[in-house]
Amino acid sequence: MKRIGRHTILLPNRPCILSGAAIAGKKEGEGPLGSSFDQIIGDDLFGEETWEKAESRFQYTAADLAIRKAGLTHEQIDAALGGDLLDQIMAASLAVRELHTPFIGLYGACSTMAESLCLAAMLVDGGYLHNAVCTASSHFCTAERQYRFPLEYGSQRPPTAQWTVTGAGSAVVSLQAHSSAICRCTHVTLGQIVDMAVKDANNMGAAMAPAAADTLHRHLTDTGRTPTDYDLIITGDLGRVGHDLLLMLMQERGMPLDPSRYIDCGLELFSPEQDVHAGGSGCGCSAVTLCGHIFEQFRQGKLHRALFMATGALLSPTSSQQGDTIPGIAHAIALEAAP
Q: Are residues 237 and 110 in contact, defined by beta-carbon separation less than 8 angstroms?
């Protein structure tokens, strides 16, 4: 059986993550994790005519680099799995068009990087794919234009608001064991939607934290593990509001998190001096942090077991305008150092 409990999937073949690549924007490169990124792009347009085309180029560049770092060619990739925040996930679609590989387009909002890794690991573990590339991106300018206001409007941002990360991350998941592999995928816990009736699109941390607590609780219950069984538990982009809420919610569930073993990508990417209010957000937030900083920690032997759990606020401009609530989602994948 490949299921543990009701919600968690065991990956007995322990698929490898062969490589990762993180391409970040200028503001992200100026933050605390700047040295862990493969490339820092100083031009928000990345040489393109529009921000949307630039985001697609971010994602293609990350995917292409991850494939090359794995020692593979595009032809050796059996499928690409990825998405973004744009309408009809156009950044991912246009990026993968240039890879000439089968494409599984995904939309999990800011949980997309974890969602793609979970699905790729299951497909590879089952023998349906040999090599897969997972990718996700976001861009401050494209997200502001789509979800909020034109940049020229100069609207006031409330303290609970988060800064959409400009960047893309990609990872190659493979069935082949390789001495240079970064880590192995051992368990997947797919999230279910949790909606606590939050309607404020400028407070996504509050909308996503209950879903993170639900997925984490189910993962630990199914596996019989405790939070201290992980060197690090990583959430995607809860920001300061969601980070503190998750600590409270897990305390209430009798599974308290050790603050020294828990980080949120939205808080790691930027320094307080960069004035991003509650922290970073966007598909690219967890993607660049994982494929840059976290993978680097595995390579250096500082991490042996980690739980990567990216979170998403499943809102759209239309649902917000119609006064609907914001459903939250969180997907988790357990990673262990490659032997």
A: yes
Same fold, 15-174 and 183-337: yes
* pLDDT 10s digits, 133-147: 999 999 999 988 887
Residue 214 in tokens = 């639900």
d(CA 307, CA 264): 12
Rounded Cα distance between 164 and 112, Å, is 14
Q: Are 278 and 239 in contact (CB under 8 A)?
A: yes
Name residues whose C-beta falls within 8 Å of residue 277's C-beta, 6 or more positions apart in sequence: 157, 158, 159, 160, 161, 162, 163
Domain positions in the chain: 15-174, 183-337
Distance from C-alpha of 212 to C-alpha of 218, rounded to nearest angstrom: 10
* CATH class of the domain whose range is 15-174: alpha beta
Please state, in angstroms and rounded to a whole number, the distance separating the CA atoms of residues 223 and 177: 25
Average of pLDDT values for 160-185?
A: 92
Architecture of the structural domain at 183-337 = 3-Layer(aba) Sandwich (3.40)
Tokens in use for 264? 């949120």
Please count the CA atoms within 13 angstroms of the CA of 255 that sit on its side-chain side: 23
What is the pTM (predicted TM-score) of this model?
0.96
Q: What DSSP assignment string belongs to 297-315?
A: HHHTTS-SEEEEEEEEE--
What length does the chain have? 339
